């Protein structure tokens, strides 16, 4: 059980980190929450964005290559839930 | 970006909104109860634990015990036998024969159910009758069954309940697909929740972001859910009519796999324990269900079902010769050899229930279901609040808040009815559970009819839900369940974890129930697809 | 008027058509290696059949064509099923 849980958990943790990075430099998110130009410096590079999306999706491709279907489903489900959680957590509070 | 003409987008947006608003509240009920139903087994173990818990689902000596029981009942019932673990690990042995009930095309089972202690194998209860009847008197599993029934059929009679939930599944699928098509900036705005002064606009962003992330699984859950609802209520009856002259049993036998040649000569059953051990060895995991056809006859056949082993998605079906105990074959769930239809049908259950990798996959499915709930509720709130200038929509907005926040309260209150019914010694705990559910609904309605703003009612309902959740571990213990010291000493981990989850849930509800500012109505319509550039 | 017509088509008519296509498919789909594909695939894919017909009925600009095509599917499958009942009693595929 532990061995079979390790693979999807590792994949989820990897994607969580990559997603967090992607969310933090997301240009639209930064613009929407009123970040200054210097905060948005990184977002000017499309290669960084593309690289982070590749990192987010990499565990999925690996799990497909391994044929680890249960782990793939867990990863896919958890990653979408984590993505929503990140977007929700990083959202600016409404203006009063 | 998905390019669509403006009028098509408008049509899709209208379909999205109306599919949601017409069926959204019922859909919300089905999704919310589905979220709870993910943990149906754990809820059963929590509400009716066996102390100390059993080490294996089917202990040694079960075969002999079953043989003994087969001699205690009407011989007419000794034909088919199902064995499966229930709440707390109790083993149910259902000896039955197939019968048809006048006015009902669906085949039924009539027989005797024994509830066995999972360690001592003593008979805890016995119920005789037709399938629905014997299930209704299943007290130990009643709470989980009540919540699952609410999810699959809204407690409506068959087949109407399934038809309703099937249509709701289709509506959810439509909402997901149209949502994808109308929200054209999907990938670019996965993290974009803008900073609005107006809470309604912020809520719109939150709805769109949650829906975008949840989209693939909303589609999967809706598709598989409507498949499960329609398969039994339309698919099987219609197919049986077209291909088997209406004989559903014949259709099911053909789909599952041809049964062995009939030989009604009496013959003693081979060692069931041996077959279970062999199946566990072959599948790499212990059995979760056993089906015996023609028990005690020369043509007896034992099918052992096991859940997926570690790293697998699909369960195992192992067939044994009942009179010799010899292993016959491992077969797919449907058909005797692998096929496209069988493979597709086999992935439906793991995709819908998320039960293929124990608590880990169940937790993920719980989160996905919760996200779907959030999307449905915020969507409904958006649609109604945006039109709140007209009185009927204002009333609808209050109803949405009432159902949205009243339902969790009602679901949390259901175990109160269960424990109260059990303490009072009622035979069918369904009535007190319905009463508790209705009481919570009435309280919600009463709050809703007052002059208090709907948002404040939402806070009150959340806090009440928190209080009820907090009371559940106490009520469980007060109604004769084990306390924490006993539970930890005896290794009742599911019970302890569920209590912890309930307490954590209570805290989260209490926290979420902090009063907030109410959103104002928007004058503009149809702006759910508005891109970021149009933001103030 | 056309909104009602489209509603009627996309609602009950599409649902009945999807159920009829599912039933008819038992007769025209190949049975496959396990001899069950013609029975199982239509049941599993019923939500997809319905969704395809529903979106087509909602989005085709030419409402008459949408009615025509949907009814054609409905009648063709219904006729196939009826021919089986007229010819032989219960047919085991």
Layout of strands and helices, then pairs:
The complex is a heterotrimer of chains A (96), B (536) and C (93).
Chain A lengths: L1 H23 L2 H6 L13 H21 L2 H21 L7
Chain B lengths: L5 H32 L2 H8 L14 H9 L9 E6 L5 E10 L6 E10 L6 E8 H6 L5 H12 L6 H23 L16 H46 L3 H9 L15 H12 L5 E5 L7 E6 L9 E6 L5 E5 L8 H14 L4 H29 L4 H34 L5 H20 L4 H25 L5 H7 L2 H20 L24
Helix pairs in contact in B: 1-5, 1-6, 1-11, 1-12, 2-5, 2-16, 6-7, 7-8, 7-10, 7-11, 11-12, 12-13, 12-14, 14-16
Chain C lengths: L1 H27 L8 H23 L3 H25 L6
Helix pairs in contact in C: 1-2, 1-3
Short key terms for the protein model shown above:
heterotrimer, A: 96 residues, mainly alpha, 4 helices, C: 93 residues, disordered C terminus, transmembrane (chain C), membrane (chain C), transmembrane helix (chain C)
Description:
The complex is a heterotrimer of chains A (96), B (536) and C (93). Chain A is an all-alpha fold and 96 residues long. In chain A, 74% of the residues lie in helices and 0% in strands. Chain A has one domain (2-89). The longest helix of chain A is centred in the N-terminal third of the chain and has 23 residues, at 2-24. In chain B, 57% of the residues lie in helices and 10% in strands. In chain B, β5 and β6 (301-306) form a beta hairpin. The model of chain B is unreliable at 520-536 (pLDDT under 50). By secondary structure, chain C is mainly alpha-helical. Chain C has one domain. Helices cover 81% and strands 0% of the residues of chain C. Chain C contains 3 helices and no strands. Chain C has helices at residues 2-28, 37-59, 63-87. In chain C, α1 packs parallel to α3. Chain C is elongated. The N and C termini of chain C lie far apart (44 Å). The model of chain C is unreliable at 89-93 (pLDDT under 50). The A-B interface holds A 1, 3-5, 8-9, 22-23, 26, 28-29, 31-34, 68-71, 73-74, 76-78, 80-81, 83-84, 86-88, 90-96 and B 188-199, 202, 205-206, 209-210, 213-214, 216-217, 308, 310-313, 350-351, 354, 356-358, 360-361, 364-365, 367-368, 371, 517, 532, 535.
Put simply, the count of helices of chain A is 4
What is the total tally of β strands of chain C?
0
> What level of helicity do the residues of chain C show?
over 70%
Major β-sheet profile of chain A:
none
Give me the strand/helix succession of chain A: HHHH
The assembly state of the depicted protein chains is heterotrimer
**Uncertain residue ranges of chain C:** 89-93
* Termini Cα gap of chain A: 49 Å
